[in-house]
## 1
Amino acid sequence: MNTTPLLHMSAISKSFPGVKALDRVDFTVQPGEIMALLGENGAGKSTLMRILDGVFTPDSGQIFWRGQPVQIRSPQDAKNLGISMIHQELALVPYLDVAKNIYLGREPAGLLPGTIDWTTLYEQAHQQLARLDLDVDPRTPVRDLPLAQQQMVEVAKALSLSAQLIVMDEPTSSLSNAEVAVLFRTMRALKEQGVSIVFISHRLNEIFAIADRVTVLRDGSLVGSEPLQGMTADALIRMMVGRELGETNQRPAGEDVQSQRQPILEVRNLSRAGILHDINFTLYEGEILGVAGLVGAGRTELAETIFSVHPPTQGDILLRGQKLRLRRPADAIRAGIALVTEDRKGQGLFLRMEVGANISVRILHQLARFGLIRWRDSQHLAQEYVDKLGVRTPSVRQKVRNLSGGNQQKVVIAKWLTLKPQVLILDEPTRGIDVGAKGEIHRLMRELASQGVGILMISSELPEVLGVSDRVLVMRGGRVVAEMNPRLATQDDIMRAATGAKTS
Amino acid sequence: MASFAVTERSWKALLQQYGLFVSFLALCLLLSLATDRFLRTENLLNVLRQASINGIIAVGMMLVILTRGIDLSVGAVLALACVIAGDAVRQGWPSLIAIVLCLALGGSMGLVSGTLVTRLNIPPFIATLGMMTIARGLALSYTQGQPVTGFPADFRWLGAGTLLGIPVPIFIVSGIFLLGYVLLELTPLGRHVFAYGDNPSAAHYSGLSTRQIVLFVYVLSGALSALAGLILVGRLNSAAPTTAEGYEFDAIAAVVVGGTSFDGGQGTMWGTILGVLLIAVLNNGMNLLNVPSEFQTVVKGAVIALALLFYKAIR
């Protein structure tokens, strides 16, 4: 190749106490290239990107930017070079509008010192949004935008900083397929304009759809950088995990679940003004009921209504034929319903607390004698669940924030399993989780179902919905619009129902 | 490289665990060299007696701060509860009833603050600031600005009595520290206080009784303020409506110096005990060294700022 790479990271190594996070990793991005960065959680992707962003200093190795050696000591250094990061957790101020977010801290100066030239600010913001082909009023507060558009605002912000390299950390993980298509169009447009993109994703089909090349990391080492043309998904998975993977489809064949089992959860005419409309369905003992739909279809709202985070305006929820009177999550939990929320860190975990404390937090009363917690029992109990679920942690005393996403998710599930729930609702259970842990969580769901637990699984990943569920509901606009048999339905069928497209 | 990182980390862990203890010992050493009165038994007992009032308040304050809150009303609550109970006892109420009344009044005022925080979503700073001015105002109008004085000996016993030659307040504060430790470390409620402080939203989604948790810490803080007030009033034999002004500052200082984080969910009872002792020794030392009282607050403010910087650096 005769062009100078835009970015060349050479022999980068980085250690943390007890872990070699990166071991002489090379990483190169050409101008105008979309480079996918792939690896299981803990493979070193984030560490590499944080070094690029100046958050971590490498122990050894060199970074070349347009062929020149550079030192990146802070995110500000990275920005000055033209490197922008778009993290999974967006760095936007929710109450400020789009334009103010794009130019936060860099507002164009007005006539008087210390004032802001608002006219110019909104004009420039408008131009940046137009460049992304994004139809959003720059005066809209960011919190009023759907997540996909919030991401676009981050991209617009990066462009306004004249970024030459944009790192997107799992930008699609919370997007619906339609929104992913919009994002990809934007990414292609950026590529046309000569901007390079590092695209981190766990979804192989997306990587094949958008990226030019892929770099695979495993256990802190470089496995390889390959062009994607001519590469197969199997080959990529082999590079990533270093072993063959069985099919994630664990469903026992030829078993018609509904006909022979007891209904466990019945939802009747459930409505929430403007959000959910007349929802009816039955979940059977030992069944995994998948819920598909686009973002905004009301799936999370349905889960939260059943879990009584919000009260329904109408309708009934029956557990084993008994009508439930629910006012808050504690009531739902007492009835035997558990919810693994979509927002793992925000709503599921006590990040600064230990693994053991997270697992046992719900059943401390049962572990207490004369009001005092029997400490050793609680540690034993936590250890039992850590073993049962295969949580990879040095000990139950480890702080949860130090675990990988997949293991954190297992801790959340363990917390609920201590209560032996009858109904387990999982909202995007494997989002942002690597392939290996994903398979383990699917196996766990299957095992719980075989013990009689009714499982309601919301997922935006169609292969997951089709591969894991016994039955699939599709939601659109706050309604259940279709019920499908995953053995007969295709991804296209679900998408058509979810988008309301006419059947061809 | 790796081994360097490891030593740096354990160095920080060491500082976090023993930094406060070493600073406390260093301060004591300094004072025992600078003045010959510091190490005398009567002075040390005096330090402990003063520490007992702040210590009792600080335990409540610590729990409030663990839930990401703050209680600015402790001094005013103390004053109002004590002038009413003191007046009752002077009008012939039995001392025991008056003491119970005092604690109940403190707890009720905490209940009001807690209700404002949990039901009306008023930020703790504002809710307890309101409670502070209301309680102080009520105390002043109830007594028409005059101190209530002249209490029977059994009412004063909590503050002025001795057991085995040791002042009663020292037993009380030790008991409160012990109960506080057991509550926080060994009871479900205490663990839930930590969990709530770590992540209120996750606590709600986990079905913890978040409102009761928060309500509880404010009620406890109010009741403990009243208890501290009984000691103060017993010692002075007087309950002035202006008493305990600024006590919230010393309690917050002790808790923060003791390593409890304003982000919630992080802190230890040991840290708070050391924080209380450090503030008490600091106050005592400055008095022994004749530091002007106006300047003492400057020093204490600086100590808080330094403590915050220290914890920021090692976390």
## 2
Amino acid sequence: MNVRELNGAAAPPMTNGELAFEAPWQGRVFAMANALCDAGAFQWSEFQAALIDEISAHESDGTPYAYYERFQAALEALLSRKGLIDRSALNARSEAYHQRPHGHDH
Amino acid sequence: MSELTTPALRAEALEDLLVEQGLFAPEQLDAIIEMFNERVGPMNGARVVARAWTEPTFKARLLEDATTAIAEYAFEGGQVDKLVVVENTDEVHNVVVCTLCSCYPWAVLGLPPKWYKDPAYRSRIVREPRRVLEEFGLEIAQNKTIRVWDSSAEVRYMVLPQMPERLATADETARAAAVSRDAMIGVALVQ
């Protein structure tokens, strides 16, 4: 059965009323975690533990809940612990992208 | 996170740094996103449910060891070690949550809806399941037991809903189309 022929509740995610991701960057971050796990950079259970830490820290401090921001922070924290990312390099790169002239920030 | 940068910019910076280190190629991310947008979703779980309704031997295997029972479908969307399917009956209604984060059986249901990740659902469904289900528009009889299953990184749960009488004569495609994502989480019935 081709899933594209299904309608109603059993239709694929794109057509059943709810997108998998609300913004493109959320999909990128989610995919990065999966690709890194596939590449053996970490076990999924390690990422899950980092995500639980991030979520519980932010639920107790009362900031508004933004799931994929927690997801991204968990990924950064885990990669930093594993020595796979240098936070200061990441900060610098983010800052550099922020400074790009408009029209280049896509 | 710097006040000046947005999550989108930071994600782009992170991706570029990791690509430069050779940890993955951007095309790999494109493929994963496409998979979750188009091929991994509740239609997979719905096919499993529709088959279990009419094939008693498959249903028995599914309830005994769902991970093995669905292996033949070769669903994409890994990172799930163990799938457990819990059956709704006249006596018991099952509902699934992940109290600590967002564990969810991707291979059969896709990515979780926003409310599943919400702190309110995650804490309240455990404390007052009957009331939360009512807020979803689902009234469970007082004499029926509600079981709440807390997913984890190791074990993910899916509900096998009850088949409504009207689907008894329908074909498998029509039965699958009637099985909603919410029914397989346990916050709705199959209508």
